[in-house]
Design goal:
heterodimer, A: 20 strands, globular, B: alpha+beta, 3-stranded antiparallel sheet
């Protein structure tokens, strides 16, 4: 707080790091690339190269001016960020509302020793309303972080006394990365972009394609298709492993008393600091293939952190034992993290099966009436088996548990999740029954929290148990006469 | 709206009267379901209460018809209390009260109260909610 305090008690406006004078113009040129390309085309059409120079000078000037017009100030009770060239904007944040400070350094920033510093409040700010200092010198970050978090934490960060390491990245974690679909998605995206650019027609005339066609004629279409599929698979595996390595290599999760530090990234370094008092639980997420190889991903359930995307991620897919150990350490309840769950009974199992087999059951008479060829029936049989397996797995994974004030709910198959929610963090309960559920004597219990994805469901519990589960997790429900039945 | 579409359809394409009859029948059924059955059913299901007698004070609602929901929120976690009166609500002297919490899944909506009841509810809720001065997350 003594930082930058002027003689009369007010604080100075600080500039961002001067090295941003190099970064801003580059970013500006990249952002205005269409304009630059347009000027290039226009310049070559009119035979006057000065258009290009003019466009470049203009964008670079705007980039440089951006540095001169941006400033921040750390006042005793609030922080402010002002920016904008033509449209001035001042963003103010009360300091006691600061919940987290995260940093992010892309490649260009890292080369220049700079870091983007983001200040998070309880609200989910997006785009322009985000308080981001882009950028300050990397060596300033620990000091700024301590200053910014000092108010909300009431506990000065003990420099030189790093906390316990909860988890450290291990190369073996890479084996889970090809199991997600990101690699395949990236391959498809690249092919799409290549088509857009017009590579397809170029490729068709090229010698590579000609030789490919020759091969296809020699070995038959099936073999060519199979080898193409293998190439795509290999590329997607390589890409996803590479992406996982680059973004999570050197991941380090550290806990200093009330703070949780997450640091990861080889090229683009990201660092998050979470306030442990905002933690309301954790979610173990196991995608089907990852689960088959004994892996799980860990997400934090925190107020002020979006529960769905990457911002809540604590551990990427890693051995399930590691994820459970870390979760136990965070919530201090081993039963909630890994204890056995109570199943939801035969009615819930029946409902999972009916729902899974509904589509094949509808398709079968339709197929009989319309009269489809034999291969379609083979397809139908395969689909039915798949649906049955899905129903089996879904009914098996259903379960819940209340222990020591923690609500645990598990459901799903393709994307199975085990949510552990603190009873103290639950701010409302809903019992929902659709018509089929009422007939089957089941209900879906929904716990509302201010954290994570906001709603956590316990699917298809026996209706008579719904309120007693709620009452067990948050005792105030038990005293309410509405919640007796 | 549906009736209009069907009249236009008949005007444009007067062939196949049985198809038109079937569509008209469906429309009538839909109208009966949503204009007669749904409101009566909803009226039978919908309940609300602000319970103060036993345990911590809480707001309770029961809503829905085919899918029914019961929701309970302790008043200590209430963040805002709004009333909303649309043109139809005002015509019939009604008001809707929405009680929000810090969770998007935790808002309680009490629909179609008499407006003086609604005013009383809002006053009562804000009185009780003001006592607990915590963060309510």
């Amino acid at each position: 707080m003594s930082l930058h305090t002027g003689a009369n008690g007010t604080t100075h406006w600080m500039r961002l790091n001067p090295r941003m004078l190099l970064v801003h113009p580059v970013h500006e040129v990249l952002r205005q690339l269409p304009l630059v390309i347009g000027s290039l085309v226009f310049g070559s059409a009119t035979g006057n190269p000065w258009w290009v120079v003019l466009a470049l000078v203009l964008t670079v000037t705007i980039g440089v001016l951006r540095w001169f017009t941006t400033g921040y100030r750390i006042a005793p009770d609030e922080i402010q960020l002002r920016s904008g060239l033509l449209q001035r904007k001042v963003l103010s944040l009360p300091r006691n509302r600061i919940r987290s400070v995260s940093t992010d350094a892309r490649l260009l920033h890292r080369l220049l020793g700079l870091t983007v510093l983001r200040v998070g409040t309880g609200q989910e700010a997006a785009g322009n309303n985000e308080f981001a200092l882009d950028a300050v010198a990397a060596e300033q970050v620990p000091r700024l972080r301590a200053i910014l978090l000092a108010d909300s934490l009431n506990a000065p960060e003990q420099a030189g006394k790093p906390g316990r390491v909860l988890a450290r990245w291990h190369p073996a974690w890479l084996r889970y990365s090809p199991l997600s679909l990101t690699g395949l998605a990236m391959v498809l995206a690249m092919v799409g972009v290549a088509y857009q650019v017009g590579a397809a027609s170029a490729l068709r005339d090229s010698r590579l394609a000609q030789s490919g066609l020759d091969l296809a004629q020699r070995y038959g279409a099936a073999a060519t298709a199979a080898s193409a599929a293998i190439v795509v698979m290999a590329a997607s595996v390589a890409l996803s492993v590479l992406r996982s390595l680059v973004s999570y290599g050197n991941l380090l999760l550290r806990r200093d008393a009330e703070l949780l530090h997450l640091e990861h990234g080889l090229l683009r370094v990201r660092e998050n600091t979470f306030d442990m008092r905002r933690l309301r639980g954790g979610t173990l997420r196991e995608a089907l293939l990852v689960r088959a190889f004994g892996g799980a991903r860990l997400d934090a359930v925190m107020t002020g952190v979006n529960g769905a995307g990457e911002s809540s991620l604590l551990l990427p897919p890693c051995p399930v034992a590691t994820a459970q150990t870390v979760l136990t350490d965070l919530i201090g309840n081993p039963d909630a993290a890994s204890g056995p769950l109570r199943g939801h009974g035969p009615a819930a199992t029946r409902r999972r099966w009916t729902r899974a087999l509904l589509i094949p059951a509808i398709l079968a008479p339709v197929g009989m009436v319309v009269g489809v060829p034999l291969w379609a029936w083979a397809l139908w049989a395969g689909m039915t088996v798949g649906c049955a397996l899905l129903g089996f797995d879904r009914s098996r994974s259903l379960g819940h548990r209340v222990s020591g004030g923690w609500l645990v709910a598990r459901s799903g198959s393709l994307e199975r999740r085990r949510d552990c929610i603190s009873g103290a963090g639950i701010i409302g309960w809903t019992v929902r029954q659709s018509w089929p559920q009422r007939r089957a004597g089941l209900a879906t219990l929904i716990a509302a929290t201010a954290a994570g994805v906001k709603r956590y469901q316990v699917i298809d519990v026996p209706a008579e148990l719904a309120w007693s589960i709620a009452a067990e997790a948050s005792p105030w429900v038990a005293h309410n006469r509405w919640a007796q039945d | 709206m549906l009736i209009l579409i069907q009249l236009m359809w008949i005007a444009v394409d007067p062939r196949g009267m049985w198809l038109h009859a079937a569509a008209a029948g469906m429309t009538v059924l839909g109208i009966v379901a949503f204009v007669v059955i749904a409101p009566l059913w909803r009226y039978r299901v919908h309940r609300w209460e602000i319970s103060l007698a036993s345990g911590p004070p809480a707001v309770y609602t029961r809503t829905g018809w085919i899918t029914q929901e019961r929701r309970i929120v302790p008043i200590s976690r209430v963040q805002t209390v709004d009333t909303y009166r649309g043109p139809l609500d005002r015509l019939f002297g009604l008001a809707n009260v929405t009680v929000t919490t810090a969770s998007s899944a935790g808002a309680v909506r009490i629909e179609a109260l008499d407006s003086d009841v609604a005013d009383r509810v809002v006053a009562q809720l804000t009185d009780i909610a003001a006592i607990g001065a915590q963060d309510a997350t």
